[in-house]
Amino acid sequence: MIAAPSQSLALARDEGRAAAARTRIAVQGLAKRFNASGREFVAVDDVSFEVKQGEFVALLGPSGCGKSTILNMVAGLLPRSGGRILIDGDTVETGEVNPRVGYVFQRDTLFPWRTVEQNIGYGLEIAGVPKSERTGRVATAVEKAGLAGFAQSFPRMLSGGMRQRVALMRTLILEPEILLMDEPFGALDTHTKLEMHKTLLEIWERERQTVLFVTHDLGEALTLASRIILLSARPGRLKEDFDVAIPRPRDPVAVRETAEFARLYSHIWHSLGEEFRRTRAD
Amino acid sequence: MSNSRTVILFWQLAILAVVLVVWQWGFEWSKTLLPKAYVPKILDPYFVAKPSLIWQSFLRLGCFADATGFTACIKGSDNNLWLATLVTLKNTWWGFLFGSASGIAAGLVLGRSDFLSRVFSPYIVALNSIPRIALVPLVILIFGLGDLSKIATAWLVVFFVVFFNTFEGTRAVDRDQIAAARLLGASEFTVLRTVVIPSALAWVFASLLPAVSFALIGVIVGEFIGAERGLGKLIIEAEARANASEMMVAIFVMMFVGILLAIAVRSLQSYLLRWQPQFEASA
Ligand SMILES: Nc1ncnc2c1ncn2[C@@H]1O[C@H](COP(=O)(O)OP(=O)(O)O)[C@@H](O)[C@H]1O
Ligand SMILES: [Mg+2]
């Protein structure tokens, strides 16, 4: 799976060009305050960043630092207390769904009463895509997710990894240009997680969606992302911003042996370590 | 191996046989064996009839043993067993259908709206506190002695049971599943149709099985209090003539009607909830 040098150089240049591309997500001075039992507390404080066309950005930070809160505000699921979020230049309105944006949850949100293919085809079905067209697209997606033979199964018959693959396909089949993912593999064991990384890398390296991927797992962020935004412990603030110049196509096991991985790992680890200590000190 | 199918069936049949034998001959035997004071009144055929008499009454009420022939007998009487069963079954079915449909609709609407559920909550609690049977004479006064009053009575008993379960089921829907559906492009109505209803269905069905029995009870009570036809009316007529075996016939037919309705609901349930583990086998 390790790419030939010339090819990886070309892909690295590709990513360089992506950085010059247009801004898809712009977060400006974002803030979120919650009212916890009468007391107001700041979950997210003055966060600004941009995600460009075709970038795979990991939002990394210790648990409870406000990563999901940020992502939910970007998705328009949660009202913000301050700041602005623009997607393709348009302000995100809470409660309005942007059809160009796909979202993958950490928690299992498959519909248990629908079979695998009915789950994957959900978005097409409610959009009124005719059955003849749907069947073909769903079959392709089932194939892509490595779920051939499970199309008629109900989610409870599947393993955690398979379920998350269904969830991923349920979102990807709508061909979103922007993908928001909230620790989608957080509940999986290490082995399954690596398999999922492989699947996601293959898909992304082929289709190059704009991705904002929330995680607290440094290895995961380095494996997948082309850029890592590091958040501080609560309240979530921007701490550092790294480019991950590991060539593609990447293999989730082989990346760990690259010098760039090792360098960034120890650097971010120390930075992240300070934040974990701050979390515990609270 | 004491719980294998055959052994279970053997004991079930054995119990049935003992009950039938004691019911048929127990009173005679105890009269010859026991002092008069100890003869169990509960076995007296005057009160509880006995299997052979019930069978004869069944043949007579069902027009199987009529000199004029089956069809002539059916046409000749206005509340024979067949007609009475049909009327009771029909009214139970419609009462159940209207009751559960309106209960489901109200439960979904109030379950999805915090505002409406808070506005209506005291009224629902108050209305639900009325013993439904107390309303039956009123219902008959309003809707008359015909089928409508029986359907309305069944509706009364079914509605609240189904309403409360649907309401709870609607409240218990996974918020993240709703968010996921919205992010996949679902409108409020589509969320209701494709997430809330399927998800609340398990709760709804948990109430439909008791509801179908309640509907039957409602109709029978309605027929007791004022009716022209039906199994309840048959019982009241038999009571007037102190005819226990005819009452027993009506009771047994009710039992079968109840079983049939329960089976119908049960099979619909296992089809619609086939995604749940406990219904997997029947899927
Ligand atoms: N609805 C809410 N009400 C009150 N506090 C909340 C709510 N949602 C999240 N929080 C708090 O905000 C902080 C950030 O939460 P979250 O964004 O879920 O963190 P992360 O995803 O980084 O683990 C946490 O301390 C959490 O307890
Ligand atoms: Mg989170």
UniProtKB/TrEMBL annotation, chain A:
Gene3D superfamilies noted in UniProt: P-loop containing nucleotide triphosphate hydrolases
PROSITE patterns per record: ABC_TRANSPORTER_2
UniProt superkingdom: Bacteria
ABC transporter domain mapped to chain residues: 25-258
Pfam families for the chain: ABC_tran
Coiled coil: none
UniProt keyword annotations, A-Z: ATP-binding, Nucleotide-binding, Transport
Keyword Transmembrane helix: no
Recorded GO MF terms: ATP binding; ATP hydrolysis activity
Annotated InterPro entries: AAA+_ATPase, ABC_transporter-like_ATP-bd, ABC_transporter_ATP-bind, P-loop_NTPase
Family listed: Belongs to the ABC transporter superfamily.
Function (record text): Involved in beta-(1-->2)glucan export. Transmembrane domains (TMD) form a pore in the inner membrane and the ATP-binding domain (NBD) is responsible for energy generation.
UniProt protein name: NitT/TauT family transport system ATP-binding protein
Organism: Bradyrhizobium yuanmingense
Lineage: Bacteria, Pseudomonadati, Pseudomonadota, Alphaproteobacteria, Hyphomicrobiales
TrEMBL record, chain B:
Predominant cellular place of this UniProt entry's protein: membrane
Subcellular location: Cell membrane
SUPFAM superfamilies from the UniProt entry: MetI-like (SSF161098)
Annotated GO biological process: transmembrane transport
TM region positions: 7-26, 92-111, 123-145, 151-167, 203-226, 247-265
One Pfam short name: BPD_transp_1
InterPro entries named in the record: MetI-like, MetI-like_sf
GO cellular component terms attached to this protein's record: plasma membrane
Superkingdom of this protein's organism: Bacteria
Entry keywords, A to Z: Cell membrane, Membrane, Transmembrane, Transmembrane helix, Transport
Residue span, ABC transmembrane type-1 domain: 103-274
Membrane topology: Multi-pass membrane protein
PANTHER family: ABC TRANSPORTER PERMEASE PROTEIN HI_0355-RELATED, ALKANE SULFONATE ABC TRANSPORTER-RELATED, MEMBRANE SUBUNIT
UniProt-recorded name of the protein: NitT/TauT family transport system permease protein
Species of provenance: Bradyrhizobium yuanmingense
